[in-house]
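Hello Y.,

Per our agreement to keep a running log of every chain we model this quarter, I'm adding this entry. I've kept the format consistent with earlier entries: sequence first, then predicted structure.
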Amino acid sequence: MLINGQGPRKLRAPMTDLVLLPGFMCDADLWTDMLPDLARIGRVHYGNVYQDDTLEGMAKRVLEQSPEKFILTGFSMGGFVARVLTLAAPKRVIGVAFVASSARGYSAEERARRQAGWQPGNRPPKTNGVAAGLHPDRERDPLLLDRLRGMQRRLGPDVRTRQSALVRNDGYADLERITCPALVVACRQDRLRTFAETERMAQCLPRARFEVIEDCGHMAPLERPRELATLLIDWVEREGLSRLTG
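Predicted structure for the entry above:
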């Protein structure tokens, strides 16, 4: 068949829109190593979680700047935002992935300590600043530490203050109302998020797939980007989500 005299054209598959929500004090560099793989399935959009101090405010801002229909991926803190956003706009979020995240609420003590900022002598046990987010075998990796610290420097104290002010109430019961396909990814050596609380998310979501990345600390997008991207792509393809956007 001729089209404008040019001969046959190869039809393109619809492009999926992926909205990525980072964790606490992380910017777009969190996803850099995953982009070549994610580009195979769609367009990447970065959610703005830097200008608000409530989960609801963050979710509203991200939704206003997102495509009409999209797949949502929330890492750590971003997973809390993803839960609120998906519940607020179920017709726009066609699939949601939670990576190293949780729906556990903070205790009053945890909230106060986070808002005050970690000071020498009051860090929780078994943590050592940004290194605590990494697998114990990588906590001295200069490249990973430099990337983590670089993100914190770029975001600065104002963003830290806003993100530290977030109120995180227990949201496990709310997960039962998320009926779109969901992917929950836990990291085996995560020292910032217990395996049980991430696994519980999968148990509460009606249409969840649960995966575990081995030999990985909390920072899966930096430590195991190829493995995480493969899990996301496989899930998108198995659920046929690419046919529902674009």
